[in-house]
Hints:
The protein is an all-alpha fold and 251 residues long. The chain has one domain (20-139, 150-207). The protein is 76% helix and 0% strand. It is built from 12 helices and no strands. The protein has helices at residues 2-7, 16-24, 26-46, 52-77, 85-91, 95-106, 113-138, 144-155, 157-180, 188-200, 207-223, 230-246. Helix 6 (95-106) packs antiparallel against helix 10. The protein is globular and about 70 Å long. It is found in: Membrane. Keywords: Membrane, Transmembrane, Transmembrane helix.
Amino acid sequence: MADSxxxxxxxxxxxxxxxxxxMANKLDTAMxxxxxxxxxxxxxxxxxxxxxxxxxxxxxxxxLANALTSALRLHQRLPHFQLSxxxxxxxxxxxxxxxLLYSLIFVNSYPVTMSIFPVLLFSLLHAATYTKKVLDARxxxxxxxxxxxxxxxSANQQNILKFIxxxxxxxxxxxxxxxxxxxxxxxxxxxxxxxxxxxxxSRRNPYCRTLFTELRIVVEHLIMKPSCxxxxxxxxxxxxxxxxxxxxxxx
Length: 251
């Protein structure tokens, strides 16, 4: 019976398999929809086709949708909530918890284009991965044009993750600048620093840690050239030493 059901015609035509797949994976489907909504809102913020006032509202919607996705993913990773320090420590190891915190940091702040790119690109990558699964459930050769776009996106995943890590790093000085320009809160740089240390220590995504190392190598290479002024070299070396002391210990 199981074999005949699996190999027989799918009810509802070619899309029946996709529908069954979506219904069988309700939590993943909910995250897929929220990620697609995040991509939609982020795109309308970056490209304000409906006006600048509407763009600000799309900025908040994108971060709220990302917070929802992160909360669902965190629930999927840690289904049994406990009000304890051990559970909190375990939750802080999850990337989904990091980006739940990230969304809460920026959702009520002045809209910053840099802050939306990590949300947009992570949502795009995860949505693309799940979309391929939906297409496979529908048919092995369905929508070849869309499949081609998804394959190109997947091929550039490493470069996209490095770009996200760059955004995460350079948002730290941006939050300080926002504070002095009157567009940020006093607590925002300190909370964002905590987020950045979590990203640096991430077990699943080492790109933030890798980018810090690469940036340090590039800066040290430039300042050691004879043409570099001495005061610039000293300033950069002091900054590198200060940032290195702030970096958390990674097991």
